[in-house]
């Protein structure tokens, strides 16, 4: 049986669901390596570290649990090398693995990355997919090399995105399709029948951490793009009006018969929702009406960095 070492984030359901499948495979778990706490998930996909965390499951199974600040230190390399691993699997593990670590397993280190590589290498690939308004998302299993998400591709699965998707909902559907790849990887590595293909570098893109600019609402963009951005990370997208930041939880597309007013113009404040002009129509900001009324805002005022709160 193949001897496997697993790398992941114990607070991330993406890691934990793939590890659960791994425990059901015909293999030997040599060890698990957990990201240190300062690298744990901090998004709305995070979950408490409890009995479903892979570290807890591994402990119950008697599998060694490691959580080094730097997985490339000689003491960690020595511990893992004595296990003589055949395969290493990384799922949402954010520390970079050096060449000595990558060379340890017989078949290589395989990373489960939640994008259709070479698109959206790096951090927050599902958010970037939704931010871009892509109609298709997915996951890639690739053999890691010295770059960041640049190694040759083994498997890919695709998932259709939805206008109402959040990062959490899309991750969940991607995971539903990708967890069977764990057992397939174990089986095919054992038989030596897997095939790798190089990534097309001309199509590659890379992103690092998100910052405030990623959540600023630019009303000149198409209404579909804005709605996807807002729904991707509920409560984090914002715009400014009358010097105040307004955070929005949800949005849906309003009338789209061309530009109704200058982008960002408040068209209507209803009992619960607010209709605002966008680049190609309008969007309905759900649950924002009370906040608008509290600030003394009214139809005709404009949202945005410049001229915020002025009448058209």
Task: Reconstruct the topology from this structure.
Elements: E1 2-8, H1 13-23, E2 27-34, H2 54-61, E3 65-66, H3 74-81, E4 87-91, H4 99-102, E5 108-113, E6 121-122, H5 125-131, E7 136-143, E8 153-160, H6 167-178, H7 180-191, E9 206-207, H8 223-232, E10 237-241, E11 244-248, E12 250-253, E13 266-269, E14 274-278, E15 281-286, H9 289-294
Parallel strand pairs: 1-2, 1-4, 2-3, 4-5, 6-9
Antiparallel strand pairs: 5-7, 7-8, 10-11, 12-15, 13-14, 14-15
List key phrases describing it.
312 residues; Rossmann fold; Methionyl-tRNA Fmet Formyltransferase, Chain A, domain 2; elongated
Looking at the structure, the CATH topology of the largest domain is: Rossmann fold
Report the major sheet: 7 strands, mixed
Give me the secondary-structure category.
Answer: alpha/beta
H/E element order: EHEHEHEHEEHEEHHEHEEEEEEH
Helix fraction bin: 25-40%
CATH class of the largest domain: Alpha Beta
Give the percentage of residues in beta strands. 15-25%
The mean pLDDT is 90
How many domains? The number is: 2
């Amino acid at each position: 049986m193949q001897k496997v070492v697993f790398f992941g984030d114990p607070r991330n359901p993406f890691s934990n669901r793939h590890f659960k499948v791994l425990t059901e495979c015909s293999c030997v778990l040599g060890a698990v390596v957990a990201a240190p706490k300062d690298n744990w998930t901090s998004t709305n996909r995070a979950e408490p570290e409890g009995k479903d965390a892979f570290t807890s499951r591994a402990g119950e199974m008697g599998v060694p649990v490691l959580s080094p600040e730097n997985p490339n230190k000689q003491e960690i390399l020595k511990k893992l090398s004595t296990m003589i691993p055949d395969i290493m699997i990384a799922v949402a593990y954010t520390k970079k693995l050096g060449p000595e670590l990558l060379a340890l397993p017989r078949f290589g280190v395989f990373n489960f990355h939640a994008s259709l590589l070479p698109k959206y290498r790096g951090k927050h690939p599902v958010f970037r997919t939704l931010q871009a308004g892509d109609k298709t998302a997915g996951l890639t299993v690739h053999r890691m090399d010295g770059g960041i998400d640049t190694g040759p591709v083994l498997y890919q699965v695709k998932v259709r995105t939805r206008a109402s998707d959040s990062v959490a909902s899309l991750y969940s559907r991607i995971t539903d399709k990708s967890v069977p790849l764990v057992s397939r990887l174990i089986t095919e590595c054992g038989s030596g029948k897997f095939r790798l293909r190089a990534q097309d570098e001309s199509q590659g893109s890379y992103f690092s951490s998100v910052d405030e600019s990623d959540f600023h609402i630019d009303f000149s963009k198409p209404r579909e793009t804005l709605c996807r951005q807002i729904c991707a990370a509920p409560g984090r997208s914002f715009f400014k009006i009358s010097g105040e930041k307004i955070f929005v939880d949800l949005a849906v597309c309003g009338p789209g018969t061309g530009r109704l007013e200058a982008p960002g113009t408040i068209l209507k404040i209803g009992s619960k929702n607010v209709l605002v002009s966008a680049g190609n129509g309008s969007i309905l900001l759900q649950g924002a009406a009370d906040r608008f009324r509290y600030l003394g805002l009214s139809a005709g005022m404009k949202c945005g960095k410049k001229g915020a709160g002025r009448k058209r």
